[in-house]
Structures are given as structure tokens and as C-alpha cells.
Design goal:
Layout: H1 9-15, H2 32-49, E1 80-81, H3 82-97, H4 104-117, E2 138-139, H5 157-174, H6 178-199, E3 204-205, E4 212-215, H7 216-236, H8 246-256, E5 266-267, H9 279-286, H10 304-315, H11 352-372, E6 374-376, H12 382-388, E7 396-398, H13 406-427, E8 437-438, E9 446-447, H14 453-466, E10 512-520, E11 528-533, E12 547-548, E13 560-568, E14 572-580, E15 588-589, E16 596-599, E17 612-615, E18 618-619
Parallel strand pairs: 10-17, 10-18
Antiparallel strand pairs: 1-2, 3-4, 4-5, 6-7, 8-9, 10-13, 11-12, 11-14, 14-15, 14-16
Helix pairs in contact: 2-14, 3-4, 3-5, 3-14, 5-6, 5-7, 6-7, 7-8, 7-9, 9-11, 11-13, 11-14
The protein binds 2-acetamido-2-deoxy-beta-D-glucopyranose (7 copies).
The site of one 2-acetamido-2-deoxy-beta-D-glucopyranose (NAG) has 6 residues, from strand 14.
Length: 630
């Protein structure tokens, strides 16, 4: 969730002034056990309230569609995001495995909705021939494409969806329903793993939808998906296209993000930030496996570098000039946490899901050391431990022996986890509603989207770990992979096929040719350019269905807006460009004389499906826009 594009920051920060006021009467923390028990049930119910078709807060959402929030204005989150939905579904599958049988229909509906969504043509691309459409971050709640300008593609969605569905498939297999796992669910997973194997080494937008580059969270989840996808494929006797990339993804994860103190959240980008970001903590809880080794390639919560990273990230929010809410909290205690310190979205406040995520992270790490019966502190992790256990030394602490210190260290880690959970408790309104954020300044009221599905899902998974409840292991006993000595770039061409047994429409690959639309159009900050035309892919002259162009190549020398679109080969189209204004003013179309004609070249089924067959060389004709001053 977050900013629609860097260009829109100014617009959104205006909204930041408006905050929700239902957070008065904050309860004082007491009895964390009772709070967590009650809030876990409230949170799960509130997740279900945001799922179609029967969710009480999301009328109009199709079956299995997990809506990000019922909020339709300031901000409008009434969409389904692939990432939020998949993370939420993972929690639902885990709760189902823990015995909540009434959740199974939600899982089944989700499977159906995702089979359909995979085939929807959208501004990230089409399903055929190269799966590019799977990278679309969000859709309308009726499963149609969302056409507005956005930070796209985002490459974590397919990986996270695969992870949730693999967990469920493993349960099906262990419960006599292997055929269903293979014929109904696997085809969806297979498309997603194809996408991951093909695009892991391409840039995309991060989980906060702001930075184009390579994102630690995305890479880490891609790695998990490929490893456990490969194991599942073997179990059901099918090929996994893309899973062969796992070792190179691990190498990239291990080598490229670490700076000696923490994992830089976004690389292959120039975002001008320190790189300390909740991204790197949320990634590790999403790949957590109780039985993993701390040096596993997946970078587990108990990994030394991950612990150093955790400290660096958390400490960045201890500055009380930045976060008055954390004033006076001692070093060994949990604090309210936001996404990253440079954040300006809704003025950059703490998030419930991140603060709960920090607690979950620490419960995870403590559980791993407990399971292993030992804990090794090294130079890298020492500072993390000294904050909460001042006499910590670089050595291996074992549970053996009468005077073992290990229980004391684990107690310190657990207390630290509890102190983050207490922060969530302190700022949760009495009715248990969880918005996206709570204000960093007094009176610390909830703000941004109300009833954020991901906030609730994060609370439930934190509560599971606190209760000693874990998702099944996904890492094979011998470790996830052996990381190669030398990292190389890579991509395996994916195989995409609609998951018809799960309800995907029986679409077949049409012969398409890639057209690159390029137009020189000088725009002001906040303005966007779309291309519209007389075919359905180009919105049939409907501005709201036009295809948003991307300004990443825009420079002082060349005001370039561009997009590559796969269009049915052989046809003749009419098209024109249109300006989307910053404050919702009427769109500005090019002058009628600019109504252009283009013949889409015939396709060559043997050619590279990504080859661009024609590039337009257009220049905006007509009126320019001016800011609305909103
Ligand atoms: C691709 O992989 C190589 C090798 O790990 C790495 O150096 C490079 O940064 C990666 N690029 C992207 C965009 O993932
Ligand atoms: C990751 O890289 C570090 C430093 O280059 C190396 O010491 C470590 O063994 C690598 N981890 C794995 C799992 O290979
Ligand atoms: C797609 O192809 C399959 C196999 O050739 C065929 O059975 C099916 O009818 C086709 N679907 C459409 C919508 O053309
Ligand atoms: C779009 O316009 C072109 C050129 O006028 C025409 O040949 C084509 O049939 C039109 N396509 C549709 C779908 O109307
Ligand atoms: C372009 O021309 C077609 C056919 O002449 C017409 O239907 C369409 O409305 C025109 N579009 C614009 C934006 O002028
Ligand atoms: C693009 O169009 C401009 C203006 O008509 C022309 O000067 C230029 O040569 C064209 N470039 C290409 C690559 O066709
Ligand atoms: C667009 O700008 C580029 C760079 O200035 C120029 O080479 C190209 O000819 C321009 N295209 C048109 C159609 O004017």
C-alpha cells in the first residue's frame, strides 16, 4: 500500500492532514495475554469482513477477493492487491491448518478468484505469451483490471501467492487429496513460479510501491517460492519451470543487499534513502521456518546478519524528534515502527503491521534457538544482544549444563518481543479496529486507511507465534540450497497456461505483437499520460480504460512517456494520447488531427516473445495541462 508514484507524493501529503479520530480512549496496557487473545479473534473476524462475496464491509467484491480496506476515500484502498491478499491468505491457510475448519471455503474461493485474475490483461501486460500481466499489483474488486497510473510491475505478488497455495497444497496431499492439489491448485502455482523464474532478475516496484529496483522482501519471498515449489512439484510428479533459478536467487539475496551492518532494502535503484526499511524484517518473518538453520540461505530471523539488520532498522526510529511517540523508551524496549525514516506518506507514521511484525520476528528467532538448543552470538549479532542482555559475548550458548545462560537470553529476547506487542496494545482502540497507521505525534490516533486487512492478518500471525504455533516447515532437512560461489544473472522462460480446472477462462494464446508506444510530451509534476484507442486493450476510447504510460525515461532532454503493449497482430488501430490531470480535472485529449493510425505487424510465433516489433515516434499534439492546485 502506499504512494501511487513518486509524482503523486505532493498530492497525497495533502491528504495526510486528515486523520481518523476514533482512536481516543486508548486503553492503558495491562494483561497482554488477555489483550492478544481477544484481539486475535477480532482481527480474524475483521479479515473475513473484508473478503467477498459475503464480507460485511466489502459489498460488491467477487467471491474470494480479499479487499485491502473498506476505505474508498483518503485513501481509496477499495481494491485487491496481490501482495496483501496473498499474505492474508497465508495467514488464513495457517489458521486452517491449526484447526479452524470454517476457513476452508475462503481458501477455495481464493483459489478460484486467483485462477481468473491470472488471465486478466492489465497495464503490466498480458498473460500470454510471457506472463507479464502476473506482475500487476492491484485489481478492481470485481476482478477486472485497474487502469490508473501506478508503480508497476510489482514482482512479489506471484511469489507470495505461490507460497500460500503451496502450503495449502501440501495439506491436500497429506489428506488424501493429491489429485486436487495436482490438477486444480498446481496450475495456478505453476504460472506464478514461471513468472518468478523468468523475472526475479528484473527490476520492479517494492512492497511500498514507491521504488523501482530490486527489493529484499521480493527477492526473499521469490527464493522461498522457488524452493518449496520445486519440492511440491517433485511430490506430485510434475515439472517446475523456473525453480531451477533458486540457487541464483539465493546468491543474489546473500551477496547484493548486505552492506556490513544491515540489508539495504532497495538496490539497483537510486532512491536516496539509507535503506533501513521494514521490508527486510517483514521478509524474514515471511520465510520463517522453525526448523531452519540460522545460516540457511533464506535468511531466517535467527540469522546473525538479520539480527544486526533488525537492530539498525529499529534504532532508526528511536529518534524522538522524528517519532515523538517513542520519546523516553529505553533501548531494551520495543517502540512504534514505521516503514522507513524518510517516509512522507500520510506524514510517515508508525504502522500496526510493522510493529506487530517486529514482535513476530523476535518470537520467531527465540523459537528457533529454543528448538536448536543453542545460540551462537558472533561479531555481527553482538550489538543486538547487548541491548537486551548486556553481558552477551561472542560465543555459543548451549542449553546443556546446570548454569546454562541460554534460558536467560531467550527470556530477554521474548521480553523484547512482548514489549513490541505491548506497543500495539497501547495504540489499539478499545473496539479492536486496526487502521494502517497511528500517528507519531500526540494524541497518537489511528490514521490512513481504516480496517486494513493486512494489519489484522499481521496481528493474527504475530499471535500465533506468541502462542507457539507455527506454519509447517518448508525448508528441506539438508537446507534450502547451496549458494553458488559465483552469482550470475539469470532467467528461465516461463510456461503459462490458464488454470481452467480452478475456474480460469479457457483463453488461448492469441497471436500478438509488441508495440512500443513512445511520445514526447512535456508534463508537470503530478500529470500522467495514457494512450487510448479503438480496441478493447486500449480502452475503446474510454479514458478510464486507457493504458497508462511510464515516465521512467523522462529527462530534461527528452520528455518521454512510453509503454510496451502486446496487441493482436495484423489489425489496424486508431489511437491518441490523453493527459490525466493531478486533481481529477477533466482529462485533456490530443487535438482531433492527432487521431493516429497504426498497423500492428504480423506476429512470428518463433520469435522472442519480448521482441518489440514496432516503436511509435510521436509527439504530443494539442493543449497542455496546468496543475489544479489541489
Ligand atoms: C541480476 O543478478 C545479478 C547476479 O546476482 C545481480 O548482480 C544483479 O544486480 C541482478 N539484477 C537485478 C535487476 O535483479
Ligand atoms: C553469504 O555470504 C557470506 C559473505 O559473503 C558468506 O560468508 C556466507 O557463507 C553466505 N551464505 C550462504 C548461505 O552461503
Ligand atoms: C483453447 O484451446 C483448446 C485446445 O486446443 C480448445 O479445446 C478450447 O476450446 C480453446 N478455447 C477457446 C476459448 O478458443
Ligand atoms: C479501429 O480503427 C481502424 C482504422 O480506422 C479500423 O480499421 C479498425 O477496424 C478499428 N477497430 C475496431 C475494433 O473498431
Ligand atoms: C478518432 O477517429 C475515430 C474514427 O474516425 C473516431 O471514432 C474517434 O472518436 C476519434 N478519436 C478521437 C480521440 O478523436
Ligand atoms: C521521429 O520524428 C521526428 C519528427 O517527425 C523526426 O525528425 C525523426 O527523424 C523521427 N525519428 C525516427 C527514429 O524516426
Ligand atoms: C522526440 O524527442 C527525441 C529526442 O529529442 C527526438 O529524437 C525525436 O525525434 C522526438 N520525436 C518526435 C516525434 O518529435
Amino acid at each position: 500500500m502506499g504512494i501511487i508514484s513518486a509524482k503523486s507524493i505532493a498530492w497525497l501529503s495533502v491528504l495526510a492532514a486528515c486523520s481518523i479520530t476514533n482512536g481516543s480512549n486508548l486503553p492503558r496496557p495491562n494483561n497482554l495475554d488477555a489483550f492478544v487473545k481477544k484481539q486475535r479473534a477480532i482481527s480474524l473476524q475483521n479479515v473475513l469482513n473484508n473478503i467477498g462475496p459475503d464480507g460485511s464491509r466489502v459489498p460488491g467484491a467477487a467471491a474470494g477477493v480479499i479487499v485491502a480496506s473498506p476505505s474508498t476515500v483518503n485513501p481509496d484502498y477499495f481494491y485487491t492487491w496481490s501482495r496483501d491478499a496473498a499474505l492474508t491468505m497465508k495467514m488464513i491457510v495457517d489458521e486452517f491448518l491449526l484447526g479452524d475448519k470454517r476457513l476452508q471455503p475462503y481458501i477455495e474461493d481464493f483459489i478460484h478468484s486467483q485462477a481468473v485474475i491470472q488471465t486478466v490483461t492489465n497495464p503490466s501486460g498480458t498473460f500470454f505469451p510471457n506472463g507479464a500481466g502476473l506482475g500487476e499489483p492491484k485489481y478492481n474488486v470485481d476482478l477486472t483490471r485497474y487502469n490508473g497510473a501506478w508503480g508497476r510491475p510489482q514482482r512479489d505478488g506471484p511469489a507470495l501467492r505461490a507460497i500460500a497455495l503451496i502450503t495449502y497444497s501440501n495439506w491436500l496431499l497429506s489428506n488424501g487429496q493429491g489429485k486436487k492439489a495436482k490438477t486444480v491448485v498446481w496450475p495456478i502455482i505453476s504460472n506464478d513460479l514461471s513468472y518468478v523464474g523468468q523475472y526475479w532478475n528484473s527490476t520492479g516496484f517494492d512492497l511500498w510501491e514507491e521504488v523501482q529496483g530490486s527489493s529484499f522482501f521480493t527477492t526473499q519471498n521469490q527464493f522461498r517460492a522457488l524452493v518449496e515449489g520445486g519440492v511440491l512439484a517433485k511430490r506430485i510428479g510434475v515439472q517446475c519451470t523456473g525453480c531451477d533459478q533458486a540457487a541464483q536467487v539465493a546468491c543474489f539475496l546473500n551477496e547484493s543487499y548486505w552492506n556490513g551492518e544491515y540489508f539495504i532494502a532497495n538496490i539497483n535503484s537510486n532512491d536516496g534513502r539509507t535503506g533501513k526499511d521494514a521490508n527486510t524484517v517483514l521478509g524474514s518473518i515471511s520465510v520463517f521456518d522453525l526448523n531452519a538453520r540460522c545460516d540457511d540461505a533464506s535468511i531466517q530471523p535467527c540469522n546473525s546478519r538479520s539480527l544486526s539488520n533488525f537492530k539498525a532498522f529499529v534504532d532508526s526510529f528511536r529518534d524522538s524528534t522524528l517519532y515523538p511517540i517513542n520519546k523516553g523508551v529505553p533501548q531494551a524496549k520495543g517502540i512504534a515502527l514505521g516503514r522507513y525514516t524518510e517516509d512522507v506518506y500520510f506524514t510517515g507514521n508508525p504502522w500496526y503491521l510493522i510493529t506487530a511484525g517486529a514482535a513476530e520476528y523476535l518470537y520467531d528467532a527465540a523459537a528457533q534457538w529454543k528448538a536448536q538448543g543453542s545460540l551462537t552470538i558472533d561479531e555481527t549479532s553482538l550489538a543486538f544482544f547487548q541491548d537486551i542482555y548486556p553481558v552477551a559475548q561472542t560465543k555459543t550458548y548451549s542449553s546443556k549444563g546446570k548454569y546454562s545462560e541460554l534460558p536467560r537470553i531467550l527470556k530477554a529476547v521474548t521480553n523484547y518481543a512482548e514489549s513490541f506487542a505491548e506497543v500495539v496494545q497501547k495504540y489499539t482502540p478499545t473496539d479492536g479496529s486496526l487502521a494502517e497507521q497511528f500517528s507519531k505525534t500526540s494524541p497518537f490516533n489511528p490514521t490512513s486507511a481504516i480496517d486494513l486487512t493486512w494489519s489484522y492478518a499481521a496481528f493474527v500471525s504475530m499471535a500465533e507465534r506468541r502462542a507457539g504455533q507455527y506454519s509447517p516447515s518448508w525448508i528441506p532437512a539438508k537446507g534450502s540450497v547451496v549458494v553458488p560461489q559465483q552469482c550470475t544473472s539469470g532467467s528461465t522462460k516461463g510456461v503459462y497456461s490458464p488454470a481452467t480446472a480452478a475456474g480460469a477462462p479457457d483463453i488461448n494464446a492469441t497471436c500478438t505483437s509488441n508495440v512500443r508506444f513512445e511520445v514526447n510530451a512535456t508534463t508537470y509534476y503530478g500529470e500522467n499520460i495514457l494512450v487510448a484507442g479503438n480496441t478493447t486493450d486500449l480502452g475503446s476510447w474510454d479514458f478510464g480504460n486507457g493504458w497508462p504510460l511510464d515516465a521512467s525515461g523522462y529527462t530534461g532532454q527528452r520528455p518521454l512517456w512510453a509503454a510496451t503493449i502486446a496487441l493482436t497482430a495484423g489489425q489496424t488501430i486508431n489511437y491518441a494520447y490523453v493527459r490525466q490531470e493531478d486533481c481529477g480535472q477533466d482529462p485533456i485529449w490530443e487535438s482531433a488531427t492527432a487521431n493516429r493510425t497504426l498497423v500492428i505487424p504480423p506476429c512470428d510465433p518463433d520469435a522472442d516473445p519480448d521482441a518489440i516489433l514496432i516503436v511509435t515516434n510521436d509527439s504530443w499534439q494539442g493543449q497542455t495541462g496546468s496543475t489544479g492546485g489541489c
